[in-house]
Design goal:
Blueprint (H helix, E strand, L loop, with lengths): L2 H8 L34 H57 L26 E8 L10 E8 L4 E7 L4 E4 L3 E4 H20 L8 E6 H7 L3 E5 L3 E4 L6 E4 L2 E5 L1 H10 L14 H14 L3 H11 L3 E3 L3 H14 L5 E5 L2 E6 L5 E5 L1 H7 L17 E7 L10 H10 L10 E8 L7 E4 L4 H14 L3 E4 L9 E5 L1 H15 L4 E7 L6 H13 L6 E3 L3 E2 L9 E4 L6 H12 L3 E4 L9 E5 L1 H4 L2
Parallel strand pairs: 1-6, 3-12, 15-16, 15-19, 17-18, 20-21, 20-22, 20-25, 23-24
Antiparallel strand pairs: 1-2, 2-3, 4-5, 6-11, 7-10, 8-9, 13-14, 17-19, 23-25
Length: about 600
């Protein structure tokens, strides 16, 4: 049946009449239609089939969901593991690349003060021993012009400073005798600190040090104000000119500051060593400028000059130290001393050098409560020669021989001789006494220091490049003769001259007769001569009368001359065979007997 025929069949039907294909019934014929060939019951297996398919589909769906969920979890875990591995690789890879190609630049504590650092207290609340050295522009090979040792006592808020000439000679471990300036050049501030600890005679340790490039520090600060009590003309060592500083405040730049320190370093013969304390005035002016008016200015100023300092101070302690030294110490508690000098001498052609007086240094720092020990290091016998360089002067007869007796008598505590006399005699004429050291080790130099103390005069000169079997050679000059003469005059001013008359010709009672003549002549008003008992000489073969001078007492030479004049004969001679312990012995010869 065609669709057209079917349509004709339905035309004209009553709408109320049931359709064979009711759309409300899914397009099927009504179940109560008598024309139905099959009944609904015949198709009940369809419902069973649908339920089975639906159940099987649900299980498959759930299985797929579980598989999908498992895959999601697995993928999530895998992604997380990959992310962790990548993160670890990034971190360690970054560190490797950074360390290999971009090594970290170590930032010192000093470099961390680019921002102002303000502390709750800038007071130095601890005792501190500090050495500050000032140099030129090169801190690696410093030319030191100032060394100041300071001890700060926190309980009293007191600062005691010692200005040390840079040409002070001290024993430096590993170098024997050096100047303290050379100690800095050879081993830096650490070696200088150890040298001062070992040579200042105090049982102490230096806590900290500062080495300043004064020129750059002062210039970076924009100059300093130096206040003086009097006008000073200072040499400019760069070009040989001079510059004048007025009484009162003076603006000073870096170059002027360096020349000021050099001028008062002790190297100038015409500048009194006591004036070395002027160096502390300039150092205080530098510290005052660094400290400024506030804690902020202190921190920023220190940041300006930090690269021109070599120090073992922490930033915090440096801030506190500068602040305390500048603002917390009263004027009466800021003591400054020039170094006590035991010896100032000239070594070769190098200029003037100094040896410190340790006992006086200990007195300055008596708060340390220590006593000076044997710091000279003089422990072994030295071989010396003594020569008379003033033998043409009156009273200089046998000067070298008499001086050698002094040194032969000096001993160590264990009884060993300090000096072995190798030779004595005359030398060329010298105005000034010289102590020539041929072996500049600690022992020989210490011996030279003691020799100068004994003689009370003399310049220590080194000639270690000359070959000789001597350790030290002493040439006694006229300056030593003057000291000896003055001492003898003081010792024997009121004592008569001892004289003995010996018969060297054989005439009976000749010696007694001359003794009486001399007593009547010299002792008429006061006792000038002390006449010993006369006796015979060792033989009677003396043709010429001898007037032998046996001591260097003041006035003995003049008495001998007057005796010669009174006797009218005789020759004056120096002699050392003083068996009778007198000043003058007279041996009468035939020239007097036949007179």
């Amino acid at each position: 049946m065609s669709f057209d025929e079917d349509e004709k069949k339905f035309k004209g039907r009553d709408p109320d009449e049931g359709d064979s294909y009711n759309m409300d019934n899914g397009g099927k014929k009504p179940r109560n239609s008598g024309d139905d060939f099959f009944k609904d019951e015949d198709f009940e297996f369809e419902s069973y089939k649908d339920e089975e398919v639906e159940s099987e589909g649900l299980r498959i769906k759930r299985m797929k969901q579980r598989r999908k969920k498992g895959k999601i979890i697995f993928r999530t875990i895998a992604i997380m593991l990959v992310l962790v591995v990548v993160a670890v690789g990034v971190v360690f890879g970054y560190r490797y690349i950074k360390n290999k190609y971009f090594p970290e630049v170590e930032i010192t504590e000093e470099e961390r003060i680019s921002e102002p650092i303000i502390y709750e207290s800038l007071e130095l609340g601890q005792d501190t021993k500090l050495v500050i050295a000032c140099a030129g522009k090169n801190l690696l090979e410093p030319e030191v012009s100032s060394i100041i040792f300071s001890s700060y006592y926190s309980s009293e808020e007191e600062l005691i400073s010692l200005c040390i000439p840079v040409r002070t000679l001290m024993y430096v471990t590993g170098f024997n005798m050096l100047t303290v300036g050379e100690a800095v050049e050879e081993g830096g501030m650490e070696l200088l600190s150890r040298t001062l600890e070992n040579n200042l005679g105090m049982d102490m340790e230096i806590d900290n040090y500062i080495l300043l490039d004064v020129c750059n520090v002062v210039d970076k600060l924009g100059g300093i104000e130096l206040e003086l009590n009097e006008e000073i003309t200072v040499e400019n060592y760069d070009d040989g000119t001079t510059f004048k500083l007025e009484k009162g405040e003076n603006p000073v730049d870096g170059t002027e500051a360096v020349n000021f320190l050099k001028y008062f370093s002790g190297m100038e013969m015409d500048v009194p060593i006591e004036d070395i304390v002027m160096q502390k005035i300039l150092l205080d002016a530098i510290i005052d400028k660094i400290v400024g008016e506030s804690e902020e200015s202190l921190s920023s100023n220190l940041d300006l000059v930090k690269e021109f300092m070599n120090t073992d101070l922490s930033i915090e302690k440096m801030l506190k130290l500068f602040s305390t030294f500048s603002k917390s110490i009263e004027a009466g508690k800021n003591e400054v001393h020039d170094m006590p000098i035991l010896i100032d001498t000239v070594l070769g052609e190098e200029g003037i050098f100094y040896v410190p007086d340790v006992s006086e240094i200990v007195e300055i720092f008596k708060k340390e409560g220590t006593a000076p020990e044997e710091v000279t290091g003089f422990i072994d016998t030295v071989e010396i020669a003594i020569y008379n360089g003033a033998h043409e002067s009156p009273g200089a007869i046998l000067l070298a021989e008499r001086t050698s007796e002094i040194f032969e008598a000096l001993e160590f505590e264990d009884g060993r001789s300090k000096y072995k006399i190798i030779d004595t005699g005359n030398e060329d004429i010298y105005e000034d006494t010289q102590i020539i050291v041929y072996s500049l080790d600690k022992n020989s130099f210490a011996a030279a220091v003691e020799i100068k103390e004994v003689l009370r005069v003399g310049s220590i000169i080194t000639r270690e490049d000359e070959l000789t079997n001597l350790d030290i050679e002493i040439i006694l000059g006229k300056d030593y003769l003057d000291i000896v003469t003055s001492s003898l005059e003081a010792d024997t001013e009121d004592q008569p001259v001892k004289v003995i008359v010996l018969n060297g010709e054989g005439t009976s009672k000749l010696a007694a007769t001359v003794t009486g003549i001399l007593e009547d002549h010299f002792n008429a008003e006061e006792e000038i001569l002390e006449m010993s008992e006369q006796r015979d000489a060792d033989n009677y073969n003396y043709e010429e009368t001898e007037i032998n001078v046996l001591t260097d007492r003041a006035g003995v030479d003049e008495i001998a001359r007057q005796i010669q004049e009174k006797l009218g004969v005789g020759v004056i001679k120096p002699a050392d065979n003083n068996v009778d312990n007198v000043d003058i012995s007279i041996i009468l010869g035939s020239d007097f007997a036949n007179k």
